[in-house]
Amino acid sequence: QVRLVESGGDVVQPGGSLRLSCVASGNIDSVYFIGWYRQPPGKERELVASSFRSGGTLYKAAVKGRFSITRANDKNTVYLQMNSLKPEDTAVYFCNRKLTDGARLDSWGQGTQVTVSS
Prior knowledge:
Blueprint: E1 4-7, E2 11-12, E3 18-24, E4 33-39, E5 46-52, E6 57-59, E7 67-72, E8 77-82, E9 91-98, E10 112-116
Parallel strand pairs: 2-10
Antiparallel strand pairs: 1-3, 3-8, 4-5, 4-9, 5-6, 7-8, 9-10
């Protein structure tokens, strides 16, 4: 069984910060891809941040410069640091992974709710 557990979501004011955590059931240092996704109310799920085995990262344009994806491999955990939060960042946030480039994503977890509101 594959298990990915997201946590850290909260209600924050615009301009605030949050750090989301994703704990994996297995070690993540050899995983090809781990990413953070989000699904705003009434919209489709979208990829917002990617972390690759090579060490490279990619970000959706709307969050670039504000969000940062990092790893703590010894804890089998990936983080999403979110700064300068905006109301449009409100969404359920999920993490997922691919073991190799050609692999499919793992099953989706429950996600964690982030609400940005004054």
